[in-house]
Design a protein that fits this description.
heterodimer, A: 14 helices, globular, B: mainly alpha
Chain lengths: 391, 329
């Protein structure tokens, strides 16, 4: 990552924070203007919707152009492979050009060209291995996973995208799964990844986007290690199935299962505890996700009650727990306990139109059925939250 | 915004110190802002809200499953009363914590407010639907209960200033007219597509008109974006359904109507500096044009894809230049 990009990112961090302070009323407009004078906008930064729109249309243009060339050349797999590699290289060159132009760097186009450039290259490599070089499928997948690891990791380092760091982590775990003792490697390397990258999360010398990549790698390490110790994952040989060879008929031993049961129960607690201790919300959130997965695993093996009862009870308890936490924090000194608060702290809580969409999709009633000529209706079926259709 | 919520930020922490030293921030301001930047003070508000939302989803799913499995064994009266009590408890809780009614935007009194209100409304509506299905109060006219649901949601939305319930009210109204609000289904709903297109256009126009009226009369003016965006989705959905669904030669007329509507909406959105309606317009117009592209180029599919890519590039140029001319982020 270039020095000027890092310098621009640091200014953008301060500007983004100042916008949050202003919208929360922590500073007035005059102070915000003063901060803007101290930290002038280094690059054009449109809102997320504009960036998403640009991303979508650049993606469409690239894919359609590739399709047009593929149909136009009428070559075989070899020609298509060359086309993919050429398109991949061209897209990556376009990414560099955009990143170097402050007017274009953050518009969403660079994200689209870098993502599709890498995808084109990887698909091209896969076709090259499978169709041209006739590499055996088992080895081909391993080489592809290694190539993915290298390319996504380099892309994360160059352009500072946490999504690419996450994809590199996935490729890393796939590579590990294809080695002997893959499950053990997942646990060891997952924990090591977490511990190594946790050390640089607050490092001032790291670029802001690289710190976010480190966050993605910490979360990936935790998830990878948890996936390896989860009882359901062990019983269903989820890690071993990635190895690409026929699995032995013999399942896990009772000793392994006891360790997995303990891991399934204890890892979420440990992750949440570590997150609370360090006051790192993304670690706490990761812990909550794996806790939910552990509860689902428990439900899979232990049927204590009917599903409706478990769902209602779990939902009710979750609501009560959230209300209790809110009340407990609110009653602390100045609404604070141990550095935590339930106050929004510069977060905008207004629901945007895009945030309403999932609520409507989940709870909207189904449409009334069409009226057929001569049909005499006999009443509809009842619906849940949506009140339409049948349960 | 989201970036600063992710926790400690040495760049922001250093900037706070610098701004305090230069006198831009007061000691009080820099104290709080510095603590947040150094991760000495963090908010769990998003986690609490997420837990409440997931909790509400689980409870409504559990209740739905319970009704499905037990309605014959327990009987409609007991079930109806139990759900009504639960709904009344939630709505009563929301009513006690709600801000006094105002035509302006009301601040949320409690982080759980939106979700408990949603839970109460969903349970009440489920109860209404269940009783209607069991007792057949409306008989063959049972779809009218969808209108009752829409009115109920609308009443609660205005009373408690909830955009969430307003969205559900509009979806229920559209459902009453037979239109499906679904991202998975390609069609507007079941039944005669021609009728559904007209229903979608009429509903959409009504919603847009209500949104504009709300803003002009300053009666819950902040509901405007919900009304307008829902309306535009229906209008463009109806027109696109005509462009792609009409088997005859009339698709050209539908495309012309779509492009005219897109031009009008795009111009209005540009003038009002509204991002989402502008984005919807560009996407709808581009999608509609694809029928023309593929009809015009015909079997030469490579050429059609090339032309399609060119239209995507043109849309991209329009987006980038419009954003700059609109002068907004």
């Amino acid at each position: 990552m270039k020095g000027e990009w890092i310098a621009a990112e640091r200014v953008e961090e301060v500007r983004a924070a100042a916008e949050g302070w202003r919208s929360a009323g922590a500073i007035d407009s005059g102070t915000f203007e003063e901060i803007s004078r101290w930290y002038p906008e280094p690059r054009v930064l449109p809102s997320p919707l504009w960036r998403a729109l640009v991303f979508v249309f650049v993606s469409l243009a690239l894919l359609l152009l590739l399709g047009a060339f593929a149909l136009g050349t009428r070559g075989g797999t070899g020609a298509f492979t060359v086309l993919l590699l050429v398109f991949g290289a061209a897209s990556l060159i376009a990414t560099e050009a955009q990143e170097n132009a402050p007017r274009l760097a953050l518009r969403g186009g660079a994200g689209a060209t870098s993502f599709w450039g890498i995808v084109f290259l990887l698909v091209g490599v896969f076709l090259l291995l499978e169709e041209t070089l006739k590499v055996r499928e088992e080895r081909g997948v391993t080489i592809l996973a290694l190539a993915s690891l290298v390319v996504w990791a380099l892309a994360a380092r160059r352009w500072g995208s946490p999504a690419y760091a996450f994809l590199a982590a996935i490729a890393f775990f796939v590579v590990l799964a294809r080695a002997p003792s893959g499950r053990l490697l997942w646990i060891v390397c997952g924990a090591a990844m977490t511990l190594v990258f946790e050390r640089v999360l607050d490092h001032p010398s790291w670029a802001p986007s690289h710190r976010r990549c480190a966050e993605a790698l910490v979360a990936s390490g935790l998830l990878g290690a948890y996936a390896a110790v989860n009882l359901y994952g062990l019983d269903h040989r989820l890690v071993e199935s990635l190895r690409g060879v026929k699995l032995a008929a013999l399942g896990p031993g009772s000793f392994e299962r006891i360790w997995a049961m303990a891991g399934t129960a204890l890892v979420p607690v440990a992750v949440v505890w570590r997150g609370v201790r360090a006051r790192r919300m993304f670690v706490i959130d990761t812990g909550l996700v794996v806790a939910a997965l552990s509860l689902i695993t428990l439900r899979h093996y232990v049927h204590l009650a009917a599903t409706w009862f478990v769902l209602t009870l779990a939902g009710g308890l979750l609501v009560l727990l959230a209300l209790f936490l809110n009340r407990w924090l609110a009653k602390g000194t100045e609404s604070e306990r141990h550095g935590f608060t339930a106050k929004p702290l510069f977060a905008d809580e207004r629901l945007g139109a895009l945030e309403l969409a999932p609520v409507v999709v989940a709870h909207a009633p189904g449409p009334r059925p069409p009226v057929e000529p001569g049909f005499q209706g006999g009443g509809g079926s009842f619906g849940g939250g949506g009140a339409g259709g049948s349960f | 915004m989201s970036r600063m919520l992710q926790g400690v930020n040495p760049d922001v922490a250093a900037a706070v110190e610098r701004l305090r030293g230069e006198g831009v921030l007061t000691d009080t301001q820099s104290g709080l802002l510095g603590r947040v930047a150094r991760r000495e003070f963090v908010s769990v508000r998003p986690e609490i809200r997420a837990a409440l939302y997931v909790g509400v989803l689980l409870v409504t799913s559990g209740v739905a499953l319970f009704l499905k499995e037990n309605h014959e064994r327990i009987g409609p009266a007991a079930i109806g009363i139990a759900i009504a009590l639960a709904a009344a408890t939630c709505l009563g809780w929301a009513s006690r914590r709600a801000a006094p009614f105002t035509w302006e935007e009301a601040a949320s009194a409690h982080p759980a407010f939106d979700y408990v209100l949603l839970l109460g409304a969903l349970l009440a509506v489920a109860d209404l639907a269940y009783l209607e299905a069991q007792l057949k109060l409306l008989g063959p006219n049972w779809p009218w209960h969808l209108l009752a649901v829409a009115v109920f949601y609308l009443f609660l939305a205005y009373l408690f200033d909830s955009k969430m319930l307003l969205s559900l009210a509009l979806a229920a109204f559209a459902a009453w007219r037979g239109i499906a609000v679904s991202l998975t289904g390609a069609a507007l709903g079941a039944g005669d597509p021609a009728r559904l297109r007209i229903e979608a256009l009429a509903c959409g126009a009504l919603f847009v008109a209500l949104g504009v009226a709300a803003a002009r009369r300053q009666r819950k003016a902040h509901f405007e974006d919900v009304y307008v965006n829902a309306g535009l989705l229906l209008v463009f959905g109806g027109l696109l359904s005509g462009v792609f669904g009409d088997e005859g030669v009339r698709w050209g007329a539908w495309l012309l109507a779509l492009l005219l509507a897109a031009a009008a909406v795009g111009r209005a959105a540009f003038r009002a500096k509204r991002t989402l309606p502008f984005a919807l317009t560009v996407v709808a117009a581009w999608l509609g044009l694809q029928r023309l592209v593929f009809e015009a180029v015909g079997a030469a599919r490579g050429g059609a894809l090339l032309l399609s890519a060119i239209t995507a590039g043109a849309a991209l140029i329009l987006i980038v230049s419009s954003r700059r001319k609109m002068g907004i982020q």
